[in-house]
Amino acid sequence: MTNTKDEKAADTANQGEGELSRPPTPAPIRPPEPAELASAAPEQTELGSPTPAPADPTALDSAPPTVVVSRDADEPIGDTTRPGTRGRVVAAPREPPGTDASFQLGQLPATDTEDGSHRTAPRQSGFFGLVPWLLLVGTLLALGLVVVRFYMPAADALEQRNGELEAARKDAARLQRQVEALEGSQQELADKVAQRESEVQALQATQEELAARLQNEIEKGNVAISQARGEVVVDLIDKILFDSGEAELNESGAEVLRQVGETLSKVPDKVIQVTGHTDSLPISDKLKETFPSNWELSTHRATNVVRFLQDEVKVPGERLAAVGRSQFDPIASNKNSKGRRRNRRIEVTLIPLRNVER
User: Fold this and answer.
1) DSSP run (H or E) holding 37
2) Using one digit for the tens of pLDDT, what is the confidence trace for 50-87?
3) How far apart are CA 192 and CA 215, in angstroms?
4) Other beta carbons less than 10 A from residue 203's beta carbon
5) Domain boundaries, the chain
C-alpha cells in the first residue's frame, strides 16, 4: 500500500513537472467592443492622428502607454493589458519630452504651456532656413552692382584724369624747355645785335677815317667809298693804280693803297678782299702774250694789290683775298668811254671772314 501511494505521489509530481515545463496555451484574443474601447484605460488613436498629451505633465511617467491600433488588421496585437483586442501595433508608446522618436532636425522639442497642457513645437519651414543665405547672396549682388555701376566708372575716370594730368605735366615741361630755349635765343640774339651795332659803329668810324685820308682823291673822282650790308667798299679807278695796259702798281697808286690798307687793317675780325674788274673791250694784240683775256688781267692786278698790302702794309695774309671778275661785274655801261672808265677798277672791300669769296 505504501509503495502504491509513493508511486502515485511520484507520478503526480512528474506530471506536475511536465505540466509546469509546457508553456501555457494563450487565451484567444477577441476584438474589443466599442464600449470596451471607450472605457479602456489606455488611449487609442487612429493612424496618423495626433496623440493628446496628459493634463498633468508630471503624470507622464505613470501614464499608461498609448497604443495605435489598426482596426482592419486580423492578427492579434499581443498586448496582454488589452485582452481580447485584435489588430496590429503601428506606433510605439509615447516617450517623455526630449526622447520622442519623432523628433527631427528643425523641430523643437515638446514644451509645457501656461495652462498645463503638453504640446510639441511646430517644425520650422525650410524657407526660413534659407533666409540668411538669400540675404548674403543679395548683399553680394548689391555690392557687385555698386562696383559695376559706380566704382568702375569712377576708377576709369580717375585713370583718365591721371593720364591727362601726366600729359599736362609733359606739356608743361616741354613748354618750359621751349621758354628756356627762347630765353637763351633771345639772349643770344641780343648779344648778336649788340655785336652788330658795335661792328656798324666800327665800320662807320673806318669809313669816316678813309674819307678824311682820301679826301683829295674822292674829290677828283678817283676814289669812291660806300657802305652796304655791313661792308665798307672802296672803289679805286685803275688809272691811279696802274698805267694803261699794265698790271704793276705805280707810285701814286702805291701811296693810296697804303692809306687804305692801314685804315682797313685796324678793324678786327675782317678780311680785306681785293677784286679786279675790266671793261668789255678785248685785250690788244701787244698784251695778249702777257694777258690772253680780261680774266688774266683782272686777276693779275688783284694779286699785285694783295701782295703789296701783305709785304708793304704788313696786313696778315689770312686777312687778304684776291678775286678776278673780268668784265662780268660792271657798275656802268660799256657802250661809252665814260662808263668803260668806271668799270676798269680795283675794288677793296672790308668783309666778314665768312663772306670771303673762294
Assistant:
1) helix 34-39
2) 445 554 544 444 445 554 444 444 444 444 444 554 54
3) 33
4) 17
5) 27-111, 128-199, 214-355
